[in-house]
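PROTEIN DESIGN WORKSHEET
SECTION A - STRUCTURE
LENGTH: 247
TOKENS:
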């Protein structure tokens, strides 16, 4: 079967992927904020991280994309360059054996102890009247779980020149729901469930979040996929890659 024709639209000005690691079977890249992971609908949304990798590695075959990042989120992505490798890597994501570490800055200084891990574990689904927003929903939602460690109280200068309080977080998603980390930061600290009030989120949106917070506070969403670990699809070694947060 011949490979379908790939449409490559002109690159988005000022945005490009960074090659972090390359082997014959897979690559790890750093995607910038503002770039899609995979093509969207319409000719104007064909430029994306996957298209950039396909242009860089023209012998790549198959869908190659093993996981995604929101367009607003920057950081590490692994892509398989052939169908067998893609299947092996995608299987690790399905089995949740891949480890992901994100860095985020949230609005305000959190009351939670610095350096102490806690877990947000609430079901979520799309908020249809307000899509693409997600919401906590114990009746219709799917499990969403994130380990979070507040690292430091810091300050941030907004594009308007105002200095605001922020907290740096280490976020480690266990599941991979749409907008999971954004929702877990913005959600209230306590939520109603069928069993009564249960712990919720951080009650502090990620700085620059145009969907759940105030996009005027930063030129981009301050969420970055900083580290990525998985089992090598062929030699079985545990491999880990890092791209420091640009904020």
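SECTION B - SEQUENCE
RESIDUE ASSIGNMENT:
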């Amino acid at each position: 079967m011949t490979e379908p024709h790939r449409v490559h639209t002109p690159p988005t000005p000022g945005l490009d992927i960074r090659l972090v690691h390359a082997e014959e079977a897979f690559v790890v890249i750093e995607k910038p904020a503002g770039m899609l992971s995979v093509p969207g609908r319409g000719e104007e949304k064909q430029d994306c991280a996957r298209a950039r990798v396909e242009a860089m590695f023209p012998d790549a075959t198959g869908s190659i994309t093993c996981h995604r990042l929101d367009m607003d989120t920057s950081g590490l992505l692994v892509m398989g360059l052939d169908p067998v490798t893609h299947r092996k890597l995608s299987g690790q994501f399905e089995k949740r054996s891949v480890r992901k570490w994100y860095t985020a800055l949230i609005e305000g200084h959190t009351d939670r102890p610095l350096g102490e891990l806690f877990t947000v574990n609430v079901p979520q689904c799309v908020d249809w009247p307000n899509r693409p927003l997600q919401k906590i929903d114990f009746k219709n939602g799917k499990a969403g779980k994130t380990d979070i460690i507040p690292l430091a109280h810091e300050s941030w200068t907004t594009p308007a020149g105002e200095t605001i309080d922020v907290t740096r977080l280490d976020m480690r998603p266990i599941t991979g729901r749409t907008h999971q980390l954004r929702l877990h930061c913005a959600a209230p600290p306590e939520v109603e469930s069928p069993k009564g009030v249960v712990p919720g989120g951080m009650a502090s949106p990620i700085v620059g979040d145009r969907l759940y917070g105030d996009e005027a506070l930063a030129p981009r969403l301050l969420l970055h996929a900083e580290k990525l670990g998985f089992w090598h699809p062929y030699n079985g070694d545990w491999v880990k890659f890092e791209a420091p947060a640009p904020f």
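SECTION C - NOTES
Residues 101-223 form a domain with the Pseudouridine synthase fold (CATH 3.30.2350.10).
Confidence is low (pLDDT under 50) at residues 1-8.
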